[in-house]
Amino acid sequence: MKMVRGENVVGYEGEVEVEEEEEEKEMEMGMVGSPQQQMKLVVVGYALTSKKTKSFLQPKLVGLARNKGILFVAIDQSRPLSDQGPFDIVLHKLSGSKWSRILEDYRQTHPHVAVLDPPDAIEQVYNRQYMLEDVADLNLSDSYGTVGVPRQLVIETDPSSISDAVNKAGLALPLVAKPLVAKSHELSLAYDTLSLQKLEPPLVLQEFINHGGVLFKVFIVGEAVKVVRRFSLPDVSKRELSKSAGVFHFPRVSCVAASAEEADLDPCVGELPPRPLLERLARELRRRLGLRLFNLDIIREHGTKDRYYVIDINYFPGYGKMPEYEHIFTDFLLNLMKQK
To answer: What class of enzyme is it (predicted)?
Structure first.
């Protein structure tokens, strides 16, 4: 069946489809299906970059959503948001103060629409100075292990002062340098004090923790939690540290950008964090952050069995790489409507 409401509707193959006059009437009524098996149509307006649209709205997701009565409709950023829809859910990942104001105004005038997620909550995790505060404040520790954050230092200006600031803070080398604004995944690894002045503020310096070259990407979609293994930066031995100097640049922390699911890993390195620990962490951070769509990059300190660190939080991550994301995400949207 083909449906459109005057906006760009994503069809089975990601194309804009045109419908017949009778089907337009069904759309206006918010119903889909035959008269004998009609279901309420859930209309999800989305405002995503073209890259995000391509990676997220894959044909399999769109087809499954359509079968479940969920329709994705592109939001036209050149038109007032209130003139579009009506939407049941607004899904977005755009940046900028103008878009934030538009969305906040829309939330105030359309309280019945679920906005994923509030702009002010998203802004917190875009700033690495505050990103991990809630994890640190949580101070999670139970029989399954402990979860903390690496020691870190914020450098806003003057690279020549970085060495003194690091010494004063008592941070140990090597240090991971990340842009203060978390919209870039690039990072650097600094091996010696003299090289620190080559870095470009504003940035965050995190102590590097050996973790066996594997990180765990924990995807959160509402109450659903899914974890996968990814290759990461290799461990740095004391001998290597004593013989190395300079700053090494990487495109992102999972520098190999490859799944480690099928790799022959040492069980001490590859064993997934305990499920109860992850579920508790996700539950607490959903509440504290006010977000429903995010992921955590978690590492286990090498040589320990249960000491974990959250090194990054990402809003609306690459769900297209999450196993079974189509079913998880569509179930989440339907449950969201039931809660409303």
So the answer is: transferase
pTM of this prediction?
Answer: 0.86
> Annotated binding residue at 327?
no
Sheet holding 114-116, edge to edge: 8-9, 70-74, 42-47, 89-92, 114-116
Percent of the chain with pLDDT over 90: 74
148 annotated to bind ligand: no
Q: Which CATH number fits domain 132-315: 3.30.360.10, 1.10.10.10, 3.30.420.40, 3.30.470.20?
A: 3.30.470.20
3-state secondary structure of 237: coil
Q: Is 158 annotated as a binding residue?
A: no
Q: Which fold has domain 42-117?
A: Rossmann fold (3.40.50)
Ligand-binding site membership of 209 (annotated): yes
pLDDT of residue 56: 97
- Give the per-residue pLDDT at 227: 96
